[in-house]
Target: TIGR03915 family putative DNA repair protein
Amino acid sequence: SLEGVVAAVGLVYLAHVSTSELRLVRSDVYQGRLGETCMTGLDPAKESTVALAQRVLTGFERQQGREAIRRIVLACASDDPDMPDIVYRFMKDGFSRKDRLIEHFVDDTTHALNALSRQVATECEHMRQFVRFSRMSDNSFMAVFKPHANVLPLASGYFVRRLGNERFFIVDPVHGIVAFHAPEMKSFGIMKPDKSNLDILISRRDLAADEPYVRALWKEFYRGVELPGRDASQRGYDLRAHWMPKRFWEGLTELSCQDLPRDAKVPLRYQGASKKNLLET
Model:
């Protein structure tokens, strides 16, 4: 997490440990080296860890500027196993320099950090574009999204602005977290349910009665506006796969193979008003 990595950087900086003598690694991918001693990092959930991380970020912003902080925040959401060490080396160098390290594009550490931040920023944009909500039987909206970075804490605010009066939640089974919002909330919350509860959320199929019809409407609209030549046998297929990565296709309503039966009834709320009813009102 951002707090865990930045707080660890703060401890190393205060201890005046040389970069060559230490490396930061994720606990789930750590492989010890000969003569190496492993130390567990601070608990990112503790207030003291958060306070230390905030202190380090404030000092680094004073030294390197706000844009450097933005890129660190993005980079810390990356799933890259080398992320902690890249962030550590970037911040270690940044604290020791008076010029703006972020502007040194040929610097190896800066290049690595920029690559992480770009990948996460792209994944945030994928989330804004490819999350598809379904109205559930309790009138809440639910979506399942499987990103290649921990972007729910970064991009869920977009949906709060668009669905501020609704109750919704977004499930990320890859990182095991859920973003949620209710009308009485000013922002959104993040929770990490246990695996059994996460599986229950993902397996929910209790859709609202009119949800299949709404999905059919969206699919028909998509068919009407899509450009020709996007079939797998045509040249436009590669272009579609580039801008709409195939790993998201299973969650896109417009590409679903399920169609509404032709004899299905139109829900009352979508039948429209008759001329008589319009005159009466």
